[in-house]
Every structure is written in C-alpha cells, then in structure tokens.
Amino acid sequence: MELPPPLLISRKTSICNYLFLLLSLVVFLITYSSYLLPSSSSVTSLANLIWPNPKFAKKSKEKLPFAIGETKEVCNVFNGKWFWDEKRPLYEESECPYIQPQLTCQEHGRPDKDYQHWRWQPHGCSLPSFNATLMLETLRGKRMLFVGDSLNRGQYVSLVCLVHKIIPENAKSMKTVGSFDVFNIKDYNATIEFYWAPFLLESNSDNPGKHRIEERVVRKDSINTHGKYWKGADIIVFNTYLWWRSGFNFNILQGSFDDEVKDIVEVSTEEAYRMAMKSLLRWIKQNMDPKKTRVFFTSMSPSHERSIDWGGEPNKNCYNETKMIEDPNYWGSDSRKSIMQVISQEFGKSKMPISFLNITQLSSYRKDAHTTIYKKQWNKLTQEQLANPFSYADCFHWCLPGLQDTWNELLFTKLFYP
Ligand SMILES: *[C@@H]1O[C@H](CO)[C@@H](O)[C@H](O)[C@H]1NC(C)=O
Ligand SMILES: *[C@@H]1O[C@H](CO)[C@@H](O)[C@H](O)[C@H]1NC(C)=O
Ligand SMILES: *[C@@H]1O[C@H](CO)[C@@H](O)[C@H](O)[C@H]1NC(C)=O
Ligand SMILES: *[C@@H]1O[C@H](CO)[C@@H](O)[C@H](O)[C@H]1NC(C)=O
C-alpha cells in the first residue's frame, strides 16, 4: 500500500492541530466568558437601551407594554447633537402653572432665552414628536409615577406641562400630599405622580420639605419603606444621584433610625450606590409585571459648578453661561463615570426589562440651561452674596421649559418606540 506523501500527512496534522486549538479556545471562552466579560465591560459597552442584555431585549421587544413601534436598532438616541430650533420651546413658561418657583427662570429675571430653543438630534435617526394626545390616551385608567430627587421632580413637572394644555381647566388638578405630588386627570381617570425619595432607600433626608442635612445617612435594605407606596403604578421613572455626592465615603445605617445607639458604617459612595441599585432591582422584580408595566431609570443629571472643567476661568461656574459646550467628548469631572459603571454592572444582571434614559452626556453639554440665580431664593441673600452672583448660582437644576423637556421626548421615544 502506498503511503500518502509525507507532505499530506503533515498538512493533515496541522489542520488537526488548528482544529484542536480552535476547540480549546472555544472551550476556554465558554468557561471563562463570565469572568472576562464583566471585568472588561467598559462603561460604553451598554450604550444603548434596554436591560438585560441585547439578546433578551430583542426577543422581548415585541412584548414590551405600550410599544407601538420601534427605534432603528442601530440608533442610539442618546448619541447625537443639539440643533437650534426656532419652533421651540414646546410650551411657554407662563402657560404652565405647575412649574415650581425653583425653576421659573424667566419670571425670576433671566435675561436670555436661547436655552429654550435647542432640539436634540440623535446621529442615527430622528426622535418622534411628542404627542400629548397619545400620552394621555395611553394613561387612561393608569398611574404614572416618578420617584427620586428634585431633578426627577423637574422632569415630572416638564411632562405635566407637555400634556396639560389639551386638558380642560376643570378636568385637572395638582395636589401635594406628604411625599407625593399628584396631577389628576379626571376624564381619563389617570394620574401622573411624583414621590420624593432622594436615595430611593430610607434616609434622614426623606422629609419632602425639610431635608437640607449635611451628614446624610441611608438605611440598608430599606427599599420597602418608600416602595410600599409605589405598588400598582403602571409606568415608573426612577432616578437617584445628586444626594449621594457627599464626598468619598457614605454613611450606611445597619439597624433602624429609632435605635438609641445607631450602628453606622462608612463605605465608598460607589459601594453605597451599588447597594441601592441592588435593592431597587429586587423591588422591581417583586413588584412590577414586565407584561403590563414599564420601568425607566434616568441616569445622573450633570452639574456645572466649576468653569475650569470646560476651560473657563477659575472660581466661576454656570452663572452667566448662555452657550453650550461644543466639545462632543466633554464629560465633566465628578464621580459620574464610576457611578455609571456601577449602574451598568448591576442593571446588566437584571432579568427585568428596564429602559435606561441615558441623559448624562447630552445634558453635560448644557452649561447654559441651569437656573443659576434666576429662581426663588429660599433664604434672604446677604450683601456679600449679592455682590458675587457666582457664589449662590444653582448649577444643578434646570430652567423650564428647557433641557428636561428633551428628557421627556426621550422617555416618550422609549415608551412607544423602544
Ligand atoms: C451612557 O452614554 C454615555 C455617552 O454616550 C456612555 O459613555 C455610557 O456608557 C452610557 N451608559 C450606559 C450605562 O449605557
Ligand atoms: C397623536 O396621537 C393620536 C392618538 O394616537 C393620533 O390620533 C394623532 O394622529 C397623533 N398626532 C400626530 C400629530 O401624530
Ligand atoms: C380608575 O383607575 C383605577 C386604577 O388607577 C382603577 O382601579 C379604577 O377602577 C378606575 N376607575 C374607573 C371609574 O374607571
Ligand atoms: C457675563 O458675560 C458677559 C458677556 O460674556 C460679560 O460681558 C459680563 O462681564 C459677564 N458678567 C459677569 C458678572 O461675569
């Protein structure tokens, strides 16, 4: 019998070797992928839309409640550019009686209006226009709830302003009861509500009126303290960030606020925030029905407290800023990045579909959109403060109408065209 030429043998073995190597690689990847992926997942890897991972999101997309269409898969609506739009704002400040005096900038003397005229344009597609009729029809017999801090309250009020014009005067009302603000739409048997819980968990800052506390303490495993009031909501929009920023460490209460000797441990802000996210996800899993309800989470609202972050003069801030930041890569300097990482790590593990409103980047350009000094001042300003407006400018909150209307256009997009 003729032996095959040696060359062929060696080629065969080399193919076998390749196959073996390939197989080993596949086995290795399957075995260790769970270790490789989370650690290597940069904050950008979840740039788009819904958790859990895209595979599940795609499968469940059809079934997402309230959806009437979808956004092009390739389009990350949070990635885009601001364009000047003569037809904006979507409503006038004076037309919406619900805006809290903390956000009515024109009434408090803001001299410029340019900040009201910008429209967000994603790179890969266009946002559908906000349709108040569709929003109200969808809410018929339903309860929509915003839960979080004053920034979420701003977005809540913006949404109320966006829909209230088409509701007759005697068919709507706004009431504040305890931690709730409730906008009632009678003919629709619908409510749009806000619930004050700046940490989502129980804390020493939960009083909706008096919560200016220096030393903040959050109680571990306490999501039901507030969560029991959120049950039965059909659409929930959560946020929490601003209040966690109190330095490097954060106080976590292990027992109860009634304990005589309080058992408090200090952990890093990231660790504390992670704990809150875990509790939130557990609450969502236990209380929300993915077939009937929708959950949104709004990312960190950026602030503009230090001009040097965008190449301005030292010791200045957002006061007197009327133009946005042009650098598309601008991000700012606080702990937003590490918090974003915590969010994507924790939400990445969730099996519940949660729509993420990733407004951080698009808002970080908008140093022009803050309330600064044009708002109701809660304390009488001193001569010293008056002499230096930079010292008391609010660079956290946003004028309405303004930036937060865009957050609601994105909410609208994700609700109806996920
Ligand atoms: C949110 O958007 C920013 C900027 O586009 C991106 O860097 C970040 O990774 C996104 N976050 C998540 C969790 O997708
Ligand atoms: C708004 O939504 C309503 C209800 O779905 C629909 O009848 C109407 O055509 C929509 N308007 C626009 C301008 O798309
Ligand atoms: C109004 O909506 C609530 C749910 O939010 C529902 O329980 C109630 O039956 C509705 N009432 C009417 C009259 O439709
Ligand atoms: C505000 O900006 C204008 C124009 O950029 C400048 O002339 C003015 O001095 C600034 N005001 C303050 C208080 O910095």
From TrEMBL:
- Cell compartment(s), UniProt: Membrane
Q: Which residues form the Trichome birefringence-like N-terminal domain?
A: 74-126
Q: Does the keyword Ribonucleoprotein apply?
A: no
Q: Would you identify the family this protein belongs to, as annotated?
A: Belongs to the PC-esterase family. TBL subfamily.
Name all Trichome birefringence-like C-terminal domain ranges.
127-413
What is the designated name of this protein?
A: Trichome birefringence-like N-terminal domain-containing protein
The primary site where this protein sits is membrane
Under the heading Pfam families, the entry gives:
PC-Esterase, PMR5N
Task: Alphabetically list the UniProt keywords.
Answer: Membrane, Signal-anchor, Transmembrane, Transmembrane helix
